[in-house]
Amino acid sequence: MKSNTTVSPKLLADLFFSFAKISLFTVGGGPAMIPLVVDLATERRGWLSKEEMIDCLTISQSLPGGVIINMATYIGRRLCGEIGMLFAAFGTIFPTAALAVIVGVLLGNFGDNAYALGAIQGAKAAAVGLVLATFIKLGIANLKTRMPWVIAICAMAAIIVFHINAIFVIIAGGLIGFIMSKIKREEG
Question: pTM of the entire structure?
Answer without folding.
Answer: 0.66
